[in-house]
Structures are given as C-alpha cells and as structure tokens.
Amino acid sequence: MTDLANVAAPALSSTPTKSRRRISLGSPIAWIGLAVLIVSWIAAVNLLNIPSYILPKPDAVLRALWSGLAVSPTSPLGYYLPLWSTLSNAAVGCAIGVGLGLVIGSLMAEVEAIERLVMPYAFALQSLPKVAIAPLIVIWFGFGDGSKIAISALLSFFPVLINSFTGLRAVEPERIDLMRSLSASRFETYRIVKLPNAAPFIFAGLDMAVVYALLGAIVAEFLGAQRGMGVVITQAQAVSDVAGVFAALIILGVLGIVLHGIVRWCEARVVHWGANRNK
Amino acid sequence: MLMMDVETAPRRAAPDDVLIAIDQVSKTYVSASGASVHALSRISLDIKPGEFVCVVGPSGCGKSTLLRLLAGLDGYSEGRLLLDGETVAGPSRKVGVVFQAANLLPWMTVRDNVGLPLRVGGQHAPAGDRIERLLAVTGLGDFGDKYPYELSGGMQQRAGICRALARDPEILLMDEPFGALDALTRERLNLELQRIWQENRKTILLITHSISEAIFLADRVIVMSARPGRILADLHVPIPRPRTFDDIVLHPDYARLAKEVRGLLNAQEHGHD
Fold it and tell me: I want to staple A73 with a disulfide (CB 3.0 to 4.6 A). Which of A80, A171, B79, B165 is the partner?
C-alpha cells in the first residue's frame, strides 16, 4: 500500500486536502493576477515592438474572439459547432474513463488477486506518456469521433483508477470493525462505508479527469479531424492567424475553469460532511 | 471480595446462569514488525446475565484484545469462549459494541447512524419507533437530523451507545467508551449508562483506564496484569444503586476497592520497570 502511494505520487498530487484551491472565481487575488497579466501583455506588445505573428495585440485577440462568438450557433465560422463536437466527445470519453476507473479501482481495492493482476500494467501504462499512444489510437479508431472518445477515456481513466483505489483502501479500520461487528456483507461495507469514505479522493480524480478528457479530445483532433476546437487551432495556425490561436486557447482555458468549477460544485454537494467539518 | 488465582482455578462447565464464559483463553498475535506478541494468557472469567463488569489494567495489557475476541472481531489462540452457551466464531447478533470515540459515520445523520444495525447484515427491521425511543432515552431526541460533526463528543458517544442498543442485544461490549471525554461529561455519561443499565439490565463488559469509573459502574471490577494479560483480581462492588459520584466517594467500600485496585496496578508498573 505505501509503496503504491509513493509510486502513484504524480496521480495523487491531487489527493484531497481541503485547503487546496481556495482561490476560486471570486478571489480578488485571481482577478488582480489577470489584470497584471493583461497590462504587461499590452506593455510588452507596445513597448518592446513584438511582431504580431509572435504575440498578437490584445485587441486583435478580442476581435478574433468576437468573430467566433458573435455568430449564429450553426455557423461553420463560429466556435459553437467545434466546441460542441470537442465537448461531446470529451464528455463521452470522460464518462467511459471515469466509469471504468471507478469499477476497476473498486475491484482492485476489494480483491487482492485483481490488484496484483492489474497494478503492474496500470503503472506501466500510467508512466507511459499517453499522448504518445494517440497516433496508435487514431490508427485503430480512425479519424472520426471514435479516436477522440478513446483518447479522452484513456486519459481520464487513470486519475480516477488510482484515486478511487487509494481512497477505498484509506478507510479507518475502526469503521470496518463496526461493519464487521454488525455482520454486514462485503457489498454493504463497500456501499455504506468505503465508497463515501473514498468520495473526496474520487472527486479529486474526477477533477483531473474532466480536464484530461478535454486535453485528450484536442490532441486527437490535432492528429486529424474534420471538426473540433483542435481543428480551429490548427487551421488558424496554418494561415499564421496567431490571434485566432490565442482566442481558441482562451476559450479552452475558460472551459477548463468552468468544468473544474462544476466538479467542485458537485463535490461540495456530495461530500457535504467534509466541507462543513472544517468550518 | 474474591481473589482468585486463575492458574489454579478449577475448570468449570458453564452453568446455566452464565451468559459469557471465558475459559482458559490465550491470544498470541504477530505484530506489524513481525514479533510475536503474547497478549492474553489463560484468561478465565464467567459473567452472569445482567451483570455489569468493568475491566481495568495498564495500557497494552490486552483488555481491548479480550473485548475484540468477545465481539468476534479477532480469533483466539487457545481456550474456549462461549456466549450464551455457543462458541464464539464471529460477530454475534447478541452483542452490541460501543467503540472508542463513538466511531460514527460522518456522512450519515445521527438517526441513520443509530439505525445502521437495523439495515445491514440481513436485518430489515422497521427502524422508526425503536430508534426514536432510543434517541429520546439518551437525550438525543432533537438531534436525529444532525450530522455527527454538529454534536459534542459526549453527544456523539451517546449516539454510539444508542447504535449498539439498536438491535436490542443481550450483551453490550464497551471499549473505553468515555476515554476521550472531559471529566464532567464523562461523569454525566457514567450516570446515564447506569440508568440505562438499570432500566434494561443488559449484560455489560466495559473496558476502562479509570479506577473511579470502574468502581462507580461495576458489579465486579476485573483487574488485569501487564502483558501478557492475566486476571489479577475479581472484585465484587457491594455499593447499593443507584450510585451518585457525591455519595460513592464517601462509601467505605469505595475507598477500600480504589486502594486495592490502585495497589495492584502500581505493583504492575514497578514489576515492569
């Protein structure tokens, strides 16, 4: 167990600590940081004469953003269709990856034989840069939605697998004793004690999984796709529309923050005892 | 007072009026570091139905081990352990366990925690009335919808006792249930436990560090030795009930018993040095 926790350190960097990520959308420090960034951006472009094909002016990026947003949702020139394509593939992939991660993580935590069987391969795969497998997956699943979903699922699988496994094993022995003293079945112990106990860990994994799923879909689109935000970026890059690349990146960044916020919102509702206990 | 040398005590067949029969039970386990630990050495003890027995002993003397054996949570190496004439082979429905520090599940309301024994282990008893009554009896009537973190330590342990009573077990095993509480809360809960016991006459085995708590609560105080745990003395407490803390300290038997128990425990400490 302890070995595992050490080996899994990269994936576990997001194990639940409640003080982590107190900086939310409402934090003034975050907004001051953004203002400083934009001011230094404007200063850099104007004072240092950086050419626009390296660093575009903020207003050029804003114009690019506007031209992508201020169109009909069905326009092929807007962000909406590619966003929908990327998001829906990432969502399907994320659901598959999270579901599999939770099920296999649970089986590993419950059955030692499965842990021994799966763990070495899980770590072998985990230590592999998974983006490097992406070309192989495109060969297997083609240039359509299948490869986007598959890479999203692969990337979101591991954080949930490792976190749910660790969380399910991290249960206090006294709580297991309690269930044993009540002659509870294995599944009752899992459902009533272990799963709620692991919930903060699982949410930490989920938090990473949603962002990784988005990343997976974009990477797959880079490798070849007809639509999606990855295509928007590569097309802008092809015509040296750096402002267009920046605009697409800003969209993806905002999307990441929103997804993160949704996960945190859900966690606060599900893991209500943890949040309140620290008050 | 009854002093009994366990090693030479005659083996008795468990008579009808014995609910818990511990007969020459030993326990050896292998610690995390791989060393073999001799926790209990040939413990023999009979407990009658309705008796309130407290076990005191130095830390690490195996008194919690004894309780875990009775709860069916751990196996024993030697001897016989009978509950109501049946060999202990695992957790029994006749037994309710009160853990140290309440051990409530933080994601459930107090009501759900207390009702847990009625929903697991093949139990599908309608919880409603019984749980409400238990909550009311222990002064938690208004706290059923609260979560454990909203309760004080004393309230949490009341809920822990409620939960152990949910299945209406014959035997209550309590492992230092009030050890983490402040002195006043502890006395209040001792009084309350005495009242609960007088009302429903469960058989209670309570493990404690506190000599005064043991004498206040018990019909019999069992004094255990340092590891490997043996029974040094089995002392009858003839003080009439209901007892109060104000009265009991003035009772001549209290002073005599406290002195005797303290003497036995101190001798252990020195023997250990």
Answer: A80
B window 133-172, beta carbon within 8 A of A: 147-149
CA nearest B96 in A: which residue?
Answer: A181
Say if the Cβ atoms of B99 and A188 lie within 8 Å: no
**CB atoms closer than 10 angstroms to residue A153:** 26
- For residues A17 and A200, what is the distance between their CA atoms, to the nearest angstrom? 9
Reading chain B (273 residues) residue by residue, the pLDDT tens digits are: 444 444 444 444 445 688 999 999 998 888 888 888 888 888 999 999 999 999 998 887 788 889 999 999 998 888 999 998 889 988 998 999 999 888 999 999 999 999 999 988 877 767 678 888 889 888 888 999 999 999 999 999 999 999 999 988 999 999 999 988 888 899 999 999 999 899 888 999 999 989 999 999 999 999 998 888 889 999 999 999 889 998 898 999 999 999 999 999 888 766 554
Which residue in chain B is spatially nearest to A186 when comparing CA positions?
B121
Backbone angles phi, psi at A177, to 5 degrees: -60, -45
Count CB pairs under 8 A between chains A and B.
Answer: 60
Average pLDDT of A74-92? 91
Domains detected in chain B: 48-73+86-269 (3.40.50.300)
User: Distance between CA atoms of B25 and B66, rounded to whole angstroms?
Assistant: 9
Which letter, b or e, does each residue of B113-127 get, where b requires 16 or more Cβ atoms within 10 Å of its Cβ? bbbbbbbbbebeeeb
DSSP A182: T
Q: At what angle do helices A145-169 and A134-141 cross, to 10 degrees?
A: 120
B73: distance to nearest CA of chain A, Å?
A: 7
CA A237 – CA A240 distance, rounded (Å)? 5
Contact flag B97-A181 (C-beta cutoff 8 Å): yes
Q: Is A195 on the interface with B (CB under 8 A)?
A: no
Residue B117 to residue A193, Cβ atoms within 8 A: no
Contact A188 B121 (CB under 8 A): yes
Q: Are B223 and B56 in contact (CB under 8 A)?
A: yes
pLDDT tens-digit readout, B127-170: 678 888 889 888 888 999 999 999 999 999 999 999 999 988 99
pLDDT reported for residue A275: 46
Q: Across the interface, do B106 and A274 touch by the CB < 8 Å criterion?
A: yes
Classify A224 in phi/psi space as left (phi over 0), alpha (psi -120 to 50) or beta. Answer: left
The DSSP output letter for B170 is S
Contact with chain A for residue B59, Cβ under 8 A: no
CB-nearest to B99 from A178, A192, A277 is A178
Q: How far apart are CA A14 and CA A208, in angstroms?
A: 8
Nearest CA-CA distance, residue A174 and chain B, Å: 7
